[in-house]
Structure formats: C-alpha cells, structure tokens
Amino acid sequence: METNQFLLYGANGYTGKLIAQMASEYGLMPVLAGRNEKAISELAKTLNLPYQIIDLNNHAALVECLRNFKVVVHAAGPFQFTSKKMIEACLAAKTHYLDITGEIAVFEQAKRMNDKAITHEIMIMPGVGFDVVPTDCIAKYLKEQLPTATHLSLAFAMLGGAVSHGTATTMAEGMGQGGAVRENGKIVKKPLGHKGRWIDFGLKKIFVMCIPWGDVSTAFSTTGIPNIETFTMASPKTFKALKWQWLYNWILRMTFIKNMAKKKIKAKPAGPTDEARLKAKSLVWGEVTNEAGQTKSARLIGPEGYTLTAISSLIITKKVLSGNYKIGYQTPAGCYGADLVLEIPGVARELL
C-alpha cells in the first residue's frame, strides 16, 4: 500500500470525480471505487488511476478491500442509506472513515459509534466537505472569541453555481420532513423555515431561512453551545409559502412523489460546470451570544461549495495519512481547529 493512497468510494459521482481529479495536486493517489463498473472503469482510464468494484451490501468483500487502506473517503450518498454500512466495514477493517455528508441523522449516528471507533482505534469524521468544514470552523472560532456563548446562529449562501445530482437527491429524500434546531442541548423538530432574516455576508445582503443543516449536530460537539440554529439563502416568496407546509408535507413524504422528484433530478446536468464553479463563491456567517447579551460575529468567503468540498476532503485525508488524527468520532474543527478552513486556497475570514 502506497503511503499516499486512499480509497475513494462513490468516485463516479459529481463530487467524487472532483476529488479524484484534484487528488494529485495534494500528492495523493485515490483508488477509485463504487458499484458501477462501467462508470468507475471509464473514469479510472481517463485519470490513469487504479480502481475496484465493490457493492456496499457485500460486507465481507468491502472489509477485505478496506484492509488495504488506512483511510476511505466515502462520497456515495444519500448518506442516510450508505454511511452505516461503510462505517461498520471500516470498524472491522480498522480503516479511518471520512465522508462528505451534511445530514444531521448521519452525524448523530456516527457519534453513537464513538466507543466502537475508539476500541478499533479508528477515526470517524463525517462532513469533511462544505458540509460542514466552513461552518464548523466559524462555530469553533466564535466560541473562542466568546467562551461563555449560549446561542449560536450559522448561515451560508452561494453566489453562482448549482446543485449536484447527489445533493438534490438528498434534498428529495428529506422532502416533507420539516426542520430542526438545538435547544438546551437537545435536537428539536421545527417547521422548515420557521425563522427568516436578512444577513450581510459582506459581498451582499441575502435573505436566509432556518433549515436542518448538519451543524445542529456537529457544532454542539465542537463547541458545547446548547442552542444552535442554521440558515441558508431562500427567496422571501418561498419563505412565506412555507407557512402552509403543514397542509402538504404529508404528500411530499410519499414515496412516489420522491421518486418523481428524483427522476427530474436525473434529467438535469450532474452539477455545475467547471466554468460556473470557478466564478461562484461560498459565503458563511456566524454569530454567538451569551446570557449577558454580549455578541460576537464573523464571516468568511471561499470557493464554490463543491470545489471547497474536494479541497477540504483532500486536506483532511492527507492529515490522516500522515498520522495526524484522533481516534473516535470527531468533527473537522474539533479535531483540527478553527483555522482548518484557512488552509483552503481562496478562503478569507473576518471578525465583525
């Protein structure tokens, strides 16, 4: 096994391809993996990289494969269906687990496997991409500015770009499920978009609404702040329409409705073009408050979300391969600090 080699599962997906294409810039060699032999083999030929065909449902074969690698980057979502199978195989193989999820349930599930990860001496770190590296780092940074913080608000927005098939499919799976926040240390369900506000991201003021982003789980692990809300950009018109969601959420949860949405997703481009990615920017904002009413806020600007995901996942993979990791369940900023995001080219942060 090469010291710069790692397994990239789901390499034929939009983000998986980006990670594979950029890996050499970080001195890394991914072994491409997935269950679609045609797609994986063609990509491997194009990039002149080794590959393996493995089905996540074949536990024994997956474990046997993983034993040859120190770390896997799992890029095959929706992660609510795939992550547990990969983590269980990683535990058996003693292979470090990284993924690019943003799903609260996946983070919480991974957290529950902390003791097993410690016993098997591996690190489990979901969310090594845009979900949730920039927001997790802002959360950690603000906690350091105001150690007595009891409330945390995080928001993100994209200027330009588009959504990939994988992201859109994950969104389709979550249709009709509502939102979530953390209150007094507990994750509490709320209507999707139950709050909205305007935020100055520096480049632009943007309207955002409350959504169930991964930081509802991860920021609590990273900072210990008991009250957390997460927001993303939305049109005020959409925000207003959501007040009627109690009337139609049950319809959106129906399997055939989700399948219709997924069919439409497959008919669209796989994700933003290279040109669109280069022009787009990701924006992140955060604010903490303590019981005395003191506040601290910060924001950052970075490359487009999928570009950032590919780069941050490779930066973290390189750290793990070099022996820089902590065993057990970890969050990106919890393990590597608030300045991890500043290692990504094009990221700038400011305290407001």
- Helix and strand composition category: alpha/beta
Strand element count: 16
CATH homology-level superfamily of the largest domain: Dihydrodipicolinate Reductase, domain 2
What is the subunit arrangement here?
single chain
How many domains? Answer: 2
Main CATH class of the largest domain: Alpha Beta
Find the CATH topology of the largest domain.
Dihydrodipicolinate Reductase, domain 2
Question: How much of the residues is beta strand, in percent?
Answer: 15-25%
Number of helices: 15
Outline the structure in words.
The protein is an alpha/beta fold and 352 residues long. It folds into 2 domains: 5-129 and 306-336, 3-Layer(aba) Sandwich (Rossmann fold), CATH 3.40.50.720; 133-305, Dihydrodipicolinate Reductase, domain 2, CATH 3.30.360.10. It contains 15 helices and 16 strands. The protein has helices at 14-22, 37-47, 59-66, 79-93, 104-112, 114-119, 133-145, 165-173, 215-223, 236-241, 245-252, 255-266, 274-279, 305-321, 332-336; strands at residues 5-9, 29-34, 51-53, 71-74, 96-99, 123-125, 151-159, 179-183, 186-190, 196-200, 205-210, 227-233, 281-289, 295-303, 328-329, 348-351. Strands 3-2-1-4-5-6-15 form a 7-stranded parallel sheet, sandwiched between helices. Strands 10-11-12-7-13-14-16 form a 7-stranded mixed sheet. Strands 8-9 form a two-stranded antiparallel ribbon. Helix 1 (14-22) packs across helix 14, helix 3 (59-66) packs across helix 4 and helix 5 packs across helix 9 (215-223). The longest helix has 17 residues, at 305-321.
